[in-house]
Each structure stands twice: as C-alpha cells, then as structure tokens.
Amino acid sequence: MPPAVPREQRFAVLSSLMLVLFLAALDSAIVATALPTIVGELGGLAHLSWVVTAYLLAQTIATPLYGKLGDLYGRKRVLQIATVIFLVGSALCGLARTLTQLILFRGLQATSFPLASEAGTRGSSERSSACPRSPARSSAGS
C-alpha cells in the first residue's frame, strides 16, 4: 500500500487536476460556440472543418505519446509542460491572422489536451488509492 499522503497535499493535487480539466472544458465550450464566427471573420468558412480536424488529429497522435512520456519522465512534469503548451497554443490562436495560422495553432493546442483528460482521471485515481477512505474509492465500491 502506498504511503499516506498528507491532507494538504491531496487538496493541492486534486485542485491542480481540477484546474487543468476546467481549462480543457472551458476551451471546448468557448471554441464550440465561437468557432464559426472566428473562422467567418478570417474569411474561410468553407474550411471550418479543417480547424476541428487538425485538433482531433493532433489529439489522436499525442495521446499515446503522453502516456509513454508520463511513464518515462513522471506525470507531474509532463502535465506541467503540456499546460504550458496549451497556454502558448491558446495565445497563438488568439493572435492568428489567417485561417492557416488558426489551424496550425489549434493543432498545437490540441497536443496538450489528451494529457489534461488523462491526468484528471488517472491522477485522481492514483491519489485516491493512497487514502483508504477517500470518496473516489468509496463511490467505486473498493
């Protein structure tokens, strides 16, 4: 059994994971609503699907890579790097002047999303296993 994790540390870890998942969810909600307007202003409404396709393609490629990188270098470090990539990608998307730039920057941004979703589910389950009476384990029936 893993050593007991202090309550303050559990709260910090869970809060951090929730913040990363919130960023990813907020990104999806905002982009889904605003994307047609953004692409229309960039003059490429006919190429709207490429923005979504680039995001999904980058996400699909990055998912197994982040799993391996997390095993090799530690999930915390990889999550921190992915968060920086996400924020840089978001800033670049906001600065995009052409549809091509938006597609490329959205693809860059998407490379960090698989880690955010994995970190939230995997990280919270790993941390909850260190605490014998955590709510996450209780609801799972363990």
Account of the protein in words:
The protein has 142 residues and is an all-alpha fold. It has one domain. The protein is built from six helices and no strands. Helix 2 packs antiparallel against helix 3 and helix 2 packs parallel to helix 4. The longest helix is centred in the N-terminal third of the chain and has 35 residues. The C terminus is likely disordered.
Average of the residue pLDDT scores = 80
Helix vs. strand class = mainly alpha
Global Rg: 18 Å
Q: Could you estimate the helical fraction of the residues in percent?
A: over 70%
Unreliable runs: 130-134, 137-142
Number of helices: 6
User: How many domain regions?
Assistant: 1
Question: Order of helices and strands, N to C?
Answer: HHHHHH
**Envelope shape:** elongated
Report strand %. Answer: under 5%
Strand runs, count: 0
How far is the N terminus from the C terminus? 14 Å
Biggest sheet overview = none
**Quaternary structure annotation:** single chain
